[in-house]
Structure to design on (271 residues):
């Protein structure tokens, strides 16, 4: 697709029914992001997300997919500490979670880990720019690469990641000019989220694009307003139960005439 100039689509998914929908409309890559932590598990950010949680959700998503490439995100401190731990945890996402590739956040500081995972036969996706696992170090979610020193590091990291053999790189919250420059200089596809229109593909968090979170960064386009839709539906259910408009007999099961007679006979004998 990249060679043909066709843009690549990627979305996050955390469960079986969402995975089935994304597959049915032709999304090419599904990421079980560690954003599962803040998006559906209620954590403040991605930091607390564990390997066990990633495995639980990756397995569920895998059961709903036939066509897309399934990428499992490696959570905070599942790969930074040592090469051995990185390979073991990447392997768990593949062997137990049924992912087909893994994603890691970072550049030069984790090249040894990435190299060993790739050499083990596991496809790796990189992630540069605003890497949310560094939120405390960055001091927030401001875009990255907005000064020369940082832009140079991201650019150089992208080339180093390509050299290790990663198959693609997510670029998050960087100026579009830097997104374009990296996209032109590396041969592997760049997948942007807040990195401008020039990347080879785009990724969003499923719940964000559906308007199912309150999250509203500049780069996000909400394609639906699911919070309102869900609220309206649930409010209507509540009102109809209170007013006794739901359920009606149309929503109820009915006994056959024979069964009714038998039951009445029994009830008469057993008052
Ligand atoms: O965890 C995640 O959802 C991600 C995407 C934003 C790329 O890393």
């Amino acid at each position: 697709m990249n060679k043909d100039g066709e843009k690549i689509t990627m979305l996050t998914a955390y469960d079986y029914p969402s995975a089935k929908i994304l597959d049915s409309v032709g999304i090419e890559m599904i990421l079980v992001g560690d954003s599962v932590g803040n998006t559906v598990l209620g954590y403040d950010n991605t930091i607390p997300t564990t390997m066990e949680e990633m495995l639980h959700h990756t397995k569920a998503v895998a059961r709903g997919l036939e066509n897309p490439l399934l990428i499992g995100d490696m959570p905070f401190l599942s790969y930074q500490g040592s090469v051995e731990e990185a390979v073991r945890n990447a392997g768990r996402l593949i062997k137990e979670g049924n992912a087909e590739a893994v994603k890691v956040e970072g550049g030069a500081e984790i090249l040894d880990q990435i190299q060993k995972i790739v050499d083990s036969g596991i496809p790796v996706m990189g992630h540069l720019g605003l890497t949310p696992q560094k939120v405390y170090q960055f001091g927030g979610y401001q875009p990255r690469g907005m000064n020369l020193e940082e832009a140079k590091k991201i650019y150089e990291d992208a080339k180093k990641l390509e050299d290790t053999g990663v198959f693609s790189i997510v670029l998050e919250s960087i100026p579009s000019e830097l997104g374009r420059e990296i996209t032109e200089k590396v041969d592997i596809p760049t997948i942007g989220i807040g990195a401008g229109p020039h990347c080879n593909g785009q990724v969003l968090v499923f719940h964000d694009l559906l308007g199912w979170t309150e999250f509203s960064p500049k780069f996000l386009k909400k394609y639906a307003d699911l919070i309102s839709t869900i609220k309206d539906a649930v409010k209507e259910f509540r009102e109809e139960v209170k007013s006794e408009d739901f359920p009606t007999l149309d929503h109820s099961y009915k006994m056959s005439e024979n069964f009714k007679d038998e039951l009445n006979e029994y009830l008469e004998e057993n008052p």
Observations:
- Residues 58 and 104 are 15 Å apart (CA to CA).
